[in-house]
Amino acid sequence: MILYNVTVNIAPEVHMEWLEWMKHKHIPDVLSTGLFIENRIFRVLTTEEDEGFTYSVQYFLDSMEKYETYREVFAPALQAEHTEKYRDQFVAFRTLLETA
User: Distance (Å, rounded) from C-alpha 49 to C-alpha 52?
Assistant: First the structure.
């Protein structure tokens, strides 16, 4: 199994709006690609809230081929939409993991 993890630190002033948008717009859009088998979102508890709120957004796939399809076909537009909506209000990094 492949885990595509996106860690996002979002500014406090847009935190709740961002979380709702992620749950009701962005994550459903990612899942609608048909490539992912499961999704989870976790709040990271070890960060200071005055520095923003940090989340781990996790997407599970059953093959690297599906990840490559997502990365090449769908990710550019979905990431651009997120960047445009929350420009200068977030920092994100992505990690790809595989079940050992």
Answer: 5
Say if 93 falls within a structural domain: yes
Q: Which of 82, 6, 2, 68 has its CA nearest to residue 33?
A: 68
Q: Which two tokens stand for residue 37?
A: 């088998």
Query: Can you give the pTM of this predicted structure?
Result: 0.92
Could you give the CA distance from residue 87 to residue 64 in angstroms, rounded to a whole number?
30
How many structural domains is the chain composed of? 1
Classify residue 59: in a domain, yes or no: no
Instruction: For 17-49, write each residue's pLDDT tens digit.
Output: 999 999 999 999 999 999 999 999 999 998 676
Boundaries of domain holding 22? 6-53+64-98
SS3 per residue for 26-90? HHHHHHCCCCCCEEEEEECCCCCHHHCEEEEEEEEECCHHHHHHHHHHHHHHHHHHHHHHCCCCE
